[in-house]
Predict the 3D structure of the following.
Amino acid sequence: MVKPWELPWANAPHQAVPSTGGTWRAPAPLSMACKGALAGMGIQYLEPFADGSARFHVQYDAALQTDIDYGDLENPAYRAMWIAGRLAAGKNAMASVPAAPQFMAILNLTEDSFSDGALGADPVRNVRERAQCLADEQAAILDLGAESTRPGAAPIADHQQLARLLPTIENLLPLGLPLSIDTRSAVVAKACLDAGAAKINDVSGLADPAMAPLIAARGCQIFTMHMRGTPADMQEHCHYRYLMGELADEMMQICCTAMDAGIEPDQLVLDPGIGFAKTAAQCREIIANLGTLRALGLPLLAGPSRKSFMTDTLPQYRPDQRDGGSTGAAALCAAQGASFLRLHRGGHVWDAVRVAASCAFPSHNPQVALQS
């Protein structure tokens, strides 16, 4: 089964993703001849989108195929086959059942984290206790971060990050949980992988040119996030003409960068970047429509925990009081197929996530899996 990134011109706009009312977004036909060729395959052009893509109705028995070679995108007949190929690959990806969600537990080592910074006078003991608590709350991965990426945050030097991360890795390895390192720096990532970390969580989408080759060489899992700009200026880059479509396009660009560097598809997990270069309304839109990004054919990570998009709805709560709201958002993401949820707390929060996922995907329920 051909995946979206395996098609010709994979990094060209516009990726095929579900739209409203059972329709699909895909590249525009550009000519009447292309529209006619698509109609002959059971794909009806409906209207343009503001970002230059188009909305289509795909008949149930449409003649979709992914067996196409490189050709001229300006040629109407080839373009119609290419659009149909994108739609076929996207629909196939949506039809596959995502992996049951895993709890990626947030363990911030910064003093200025927006909701849970400062480890007190005994950081070594406190971080171990916090990690053990998260393990008891069903954490599958501990995500360690030594650089705040809240809006407006300045970067932290590599040596400062490592001064916090390396002793913590040594301290937490005996717990037996995989350690993920939340960093944009390939220097930091390499040192932490050398010290025993198993995964990298890069909120910059591989912006450091040394990051992708490093991950390819190590063969480790990489969580890579969509963000425009940097944490210092990302909230100046929140203009989208079609949010979910542009997210899909920019996330596929990250995929192509990764794969061109030698990273294998099974190493990649995509994160749409809730709160990163998005307004509160856009964050809510992403959470409400997260499942559309499954059309890209790769696992998804969602990180809604305690973020400020909840402020309008829950103005009376500080960030560390938003776990109830985080539970609702995380459960909604899990019900749409998120394979990883990055959260501050597990326990009852994670119980809700598991129930939501098992309702949406019954095979995630251990009893159903046992019977099948």
Remarks:
- The longest strand covers residues 102-108.
- The first helix runs from residue 32 to 40.
- The chain is about 35% helix and 15% strand.
- The chain has two domains: 4-95, 102-371.
